[in-house]
């Protein structure tokens, strides 16, 4: 029998959820239920932690058996894990602009890489940060939150996004020289992975070459590395330290004003450069490969609507060409990805410990998630921005004091669009999220019923999580030409802009190896899900 997501932890946790989920509402829970009538000072604080490109290689999500994420596991043990949480657009910019405004990409028309604050719908709708601020919260952030930063939506924003450390050859940013060609030719971001202990150009007698921080522009800021114990902090470590310090300051103050703090970590986004100690956790010869079905792409249709030069297909092809084949290449890349996940887990832990080590723990909601996942060679694809499980699925952990049972596991499909209305509900935020009639209301649904009782089957949200993959500028205004993916508890249904379809039965095929769309025996679920998709797009 195929194992469901989180099968190794579900049984015990779901039993606990059924017994105590609906009863675990203490004093703060009672406050949250009547939040609309509360003064600002009684509302809970919020800590939102965003990782970048983090797929299900997290302990408890069954993505990779060697994943090392003890900090996320501890958070899961104290709150609720959503085993079927999905990105609404599995690439950085549109995903973030969507869930941080609470509006689907197809509702706003901000489908891909355009700046969200220039979009006529989104600029007339409050971001999550703006709505908290309008409700009396101090809103502070650091790192990568929105892909396109707009500082004035925050009370204070500290560090901008920094993808470093990156490699500098003395003239320009390049991929690490230890990465074989032709994969190295991809460039400094997506074409690079290496331990920081492997200092690039160490013997070239050029003092300007080596590691640098990752801000773009002409100015170069060197990144000093002598050893893991004698080096500059990485951008993620710097953001974790700032967030932890700010949280301790909040805890030590006698302020009545609640806060919303967001910290955005880059890893495991490429380049996969982290300290040597994280690579040491995964000796290359011991790294287990992603489970991949030979010729798994044969019955899929993405290749019919994207060019061979598009990133996912090209990156997989170049990685395979750079080694003796895909097996060796995926082992090297997987080692670097697992190391990067372990590194960001430590950063997440530093922020959560700053909450748990103070009085903030009793009145602070903690959320950890990612903007989307990452395809690790499945279906000959190495990237995000695909309609399949690996790229659309995201980790989602929520701890709301007095509301969430410890160790709860929710199996219902949800998506990132639900985060904003959930926080409005839990924090009792008042007022419209629309700035004027040119804006739009929130599209998602509050996750409160699933937070209170993760085993509940009935909540106000839809049966299926919706994801969209952008079809390109030629079809920017035509929703029928985009590529769509629906994920229910059992099924994934995909419809491409050319009309091709895919259907996967997760009860029997959790790795989406067998496309059933053309199987007459499965015509009923295919038709039902197709109708469900068009109904969602027309409403």
Protein architecture, described:
- This protein has a domain at about 5-160 and about 235-305 and about 325-465: Alkaline Phosphatase, subunit A.
- About 55% of the residues are buried.
- Strand 23 (about 490-495) and strand 24 (about 500-505) form a beta hairpin.
- Helix content is about 30%, strand content about 15%.
- The protein is an alpha/beta fold and about 550 residues long.
- Helix 10 crosses helix 11 (about 325-355).
- Mean pLDDT is about 95; it is low at about 1-5 and about 5-35.
- The strands form seven sheets. An eight-stranded mixed sheet has the order 5-4-12-1-14-18-2-19, sandwiched between helices. Strands 21-22-23-24 form a four-stranded antiparallel sheet, covered by helices on one side.
- The chain is built from 15 helices and 24 strands.
- It has helices at about 5-20, 25-35, 70-80, 90-100, 105-110, 130-135, 235-250, 275-280, 300-305, 310-320, 325-355, 390, 420-425, 450, 525-539; strands spanning about 45-50, 80, 85, 140-145, 155, 165-170, 175, 195, 210, 225, 230, 260-265, 270-275, 365-370, 375, 380-385, 395, 395-400, 410, 415, 465-470, 485, 490-495, 500-505.
């Amino acid at each position: 029998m195929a194992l469901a997501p989180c099968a190794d932890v579900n049984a015990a946790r779901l039993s606990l959820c059924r017994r105590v989920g609906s009863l675990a509402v203490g004093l703060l829970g009672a406050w949250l239920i009547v939040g609309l009538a509360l003064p600002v000072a009684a509302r809970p604080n919020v800590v939102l932690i965003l990782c970048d490109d983090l797929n299900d290689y997290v302990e408890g999500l069954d993505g990779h058996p060697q994943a090392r994420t003890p900090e996320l596991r501890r958070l899961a043990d104290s709150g609720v894990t959503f085993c079927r949480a999905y990105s609404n657009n599995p690439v950085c910019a549109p995903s973030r602009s969507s869930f941080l405004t609470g509006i689907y990409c197809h509702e706003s028309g901000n489908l891909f890489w355009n700046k969200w604050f220039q979009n006529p719908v989104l600029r007339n709708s409050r971001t999550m940060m703006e709505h908290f601020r309008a409700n009396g919260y101090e809103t502070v952030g650091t790192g990568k939150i929105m892909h396109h930063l707009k500082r004035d939506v925050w009370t204070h924003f500290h560090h901008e996004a920094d993808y470093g450390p990156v490699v500098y050859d003395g003239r320009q940013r390049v991929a690490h020289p230890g990465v074989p060609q032709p994969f190295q030719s991809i460039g400094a971001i997506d074409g690079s992975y290496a331990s920081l202990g492997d200092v690039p150009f160490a013997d070239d007698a050029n003092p300007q070459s080596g590691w640098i921080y990752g801000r773009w522009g002409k100015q170069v800021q060197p990144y000093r590395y002598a050893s893991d114990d004698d080096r500059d902090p990485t951008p993620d470590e710097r953001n974790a330290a700032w967030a932890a310090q700010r949280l301790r300051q909040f805890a030590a103050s006698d302020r009545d004003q609640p806060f919303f703090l967001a910290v955005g970590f880059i890893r495991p986004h490429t380049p996969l450069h982290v300290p040597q100690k994280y690579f040491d956790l995964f000796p290359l010869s011991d790294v287990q490969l992603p489970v991949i079905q030979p010729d798994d792409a044969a019955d899929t249709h993405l290749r019919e609507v994207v060019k061979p030069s598009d990133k996912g297909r090209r990156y997989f092809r170049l990685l395979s060409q750079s080694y003796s084949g895909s097996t060796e290449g995926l082992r090297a890349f997987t080692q670097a990805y697992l190391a990067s996940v372990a590194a960001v887990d430590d950063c997440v832990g530093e922020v959560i410990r700053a909450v748990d080590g103070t009085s903030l723990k009793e009145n602070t909601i903690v959320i950890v998630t990612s903007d989307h996942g990452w395809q690790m060679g499945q279906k000959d694809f190495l990237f995000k921005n695909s309609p399949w499980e690996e790229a659309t699925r995201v980790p989602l952990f929520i701890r709301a004091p007095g509301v969430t049972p410890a160790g709860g596991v929710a199996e219902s499909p949800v998506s990132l669009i639900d985060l904003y209305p959930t926080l409005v509900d839990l924090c009792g935020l008042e007022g419209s999220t629309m700035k004027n009639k040119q804006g739009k209301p929130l599209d998602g649904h509050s996750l409160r019923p699933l937070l209170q009782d993760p085993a509940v089957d009935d909540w106000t949200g839809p049966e299926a999580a919706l994801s969209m993959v952008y079809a390109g500028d030629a079809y920017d205004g035509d929703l029928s030409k985009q590529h769509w993916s629906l994920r229910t508890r059992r099924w994934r249904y995909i419809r491409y802009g050319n009309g091709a379809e895919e259907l996967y039965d997760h009860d029997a095929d959790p790795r989406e190896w067998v496309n059933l769309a053309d199987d007459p025996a499965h015509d009923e679920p295919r038709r039902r899900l197709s109708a469900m998709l068009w109904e969602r797009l027309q409403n």
